[in-house]
Amino acid sequence: MVDVQHWLVALPPGLVYLIVAGVIGVESMGVPLPGEIVLVSSALLAATGVVEPHWVATAAAFGAIVGDSVGYAVGRRGGRPLLARLGRRFPKHLGPAQLARAEQSFARHGVWAVFFGRFVALLRILAGPLAGALHVPYRRFLVANAAGGLVWAFGTTYLLYTLGRAAEHWLKDISWAGLVLAVLGGVASTWWLRRRARRLESTTTTDEAEPVAAGTDR
Length: 218
Description:
Blueprint: H1 2-9, H2 13-28, H3 35-47, H4 53-89, H5 91-94, H6 96-109, H7 112-117, H8 121-133, H9 138-173, H10 176-217
């Protein structure tokens, strides 16, 4: 992410906004690209005054909404064969296991999977094409897509912008002890979130295995 940020800082602001919209848009069409890394890097640049946060957020939202809509159209036209081809081309990101988890999310949450999928790396890539392949009504898809894109883009940008500005102020007078405590707090919270995610994944795997076991007993 640091390399991306150093690369972006050398570009004119207008070009940074275009890159944010383009990378996130192409990622939302179903192509694995580092859209979130570009957004985070650009939001942190905004905290230093290199670019404007509202334009970063607007570019990210535009790319997310338009990219998801294009992905929806492609998925609706290509159907499951298209998803299978994408899986063969990007097996690490869009293989059968990842596709199965994404389909399960759609089955459980319906169109809300599009909204919340904007905050999950896998669903952020697959939400548009998968919704189209599964023939989710476009109006419902568009509402969830637009809401998720706006909340994700503006929320992420302004959260990181605010944290970056605050950190710049704090680091002027912060003591080494305070810095160590802040780092330890960040590590502890990250560990807790990852542990929570593993538990949720383990629960999902168990839920998937139970019907299979029941069918075997018969």
